[in-house]
């Protein structure tokens, strides 16, 4: 997979290194000569250019990229790069870094952003995740479909403890993606029983987050009870 990264600072280089280790083809773009440090990521392609200029992106052959990552420290630059990548070059997946949380509302499909990553928000979410049991924590926002990656640690008093995944009436537009149990990462199956302390990761529509939290906590009411005998089957939609 070919990936172009706009911004060759510490963040961009770190992303490039990880993706190269996973076998991807990487192009780093930066307009600052001092940022072109080929020796730091020698297996990547490098381009000294302004990623906000069409001529630069033509030179980068952005139409050949499967993913573009706007990783500069300037939100205005990241928005312009995202918009050009999506509208002018039809890049299938555009990921953009959000530096100032106040600008997060701009990073959506209108600006060509498929996934917005806010470092301050992610750090605060990870702190919440580390200390919260029974509370839903939003980890990542996906622009398309108004969906989020959310996490909740199942509290010991939850009535879903001991219930099989396939016997739970999950809210619509909600999908249980992963169960983290101690050092294990489990792919949810209908037969897998939930256990207290399980860290549950969902992709869920924002409108369903409150209902999902009520369902998994000890506070949910009769409308959210597990399906008797699993007759309804899994509701991961």
From TrEMBL:
Occurrences of domain RCK C-terminal (ranges): 137-218
Chain intervals with Basic and acidic residues compositional bias: 213-226
Organism superkingdom: Bacteria
Keyword annotations: Ion transport, Transport
Biological processes, Gene Ontology terms: potassium ion transport
Pfam families per UniProt: TrkA_C (PF02080), TrkA_N (PF02254)
Ranges for region Disordered: 213-237
Residue ranges constituting the RCK N-terminal domain according to the UniProt record: 1-117
GO MF, any single term: monoatomic cation transmembrane transporter activity
Protein name listed in UniProt: TrkA family potassium uptake protein
């Amino acid at each position: 997979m070919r990936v172009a990264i706009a911004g060759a600072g510490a963040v961009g280089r770190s992303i490039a290194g990880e993706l190269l280790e996973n076998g991807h083809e990487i192009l780093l773009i930066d307009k600052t000569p001092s940022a072109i440090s080929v020796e730091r990521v020698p297996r990547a392609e490098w381009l000294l250019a302004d990623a906000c200029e069409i001529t630069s992106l033509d030179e980068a052959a952005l139409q050949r990229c499967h993913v573009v990552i706007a990783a500069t420290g300037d939100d205005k630059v990241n928005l312009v790069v995202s918009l050009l990548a999506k509208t002018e070059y039809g890049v299938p997946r555009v990921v953009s870094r959000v530096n100032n949380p106040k600008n997060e509302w701009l990073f959506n499909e209108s600006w060509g952003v498929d996934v917005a990553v806010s470092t301050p928000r992610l750090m605060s979410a990870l702190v919440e995740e580390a200390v919260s049991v029974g509370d839903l924590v939003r980890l990542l926002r996906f622009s398309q479909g108004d969906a989020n990656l959310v996490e909740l640690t199942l509290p010991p008093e939850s009535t879903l403890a001991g219930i099989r995944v396939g016997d739970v009436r999950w809210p619509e537009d909600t999908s249980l993606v992963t169960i983290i149990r101690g050092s294990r990462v489990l792919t949810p199956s209908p037969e897998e029983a939930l256990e207290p302390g399980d860290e549950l990761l969902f992709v869920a529509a924002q409108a369903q987050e409150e209902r999902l939290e009520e369902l998994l906590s000890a506070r949910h009411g009769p409308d959210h009870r597990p399906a008797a005998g699993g007759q309804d089957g899994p509701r991961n939609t």
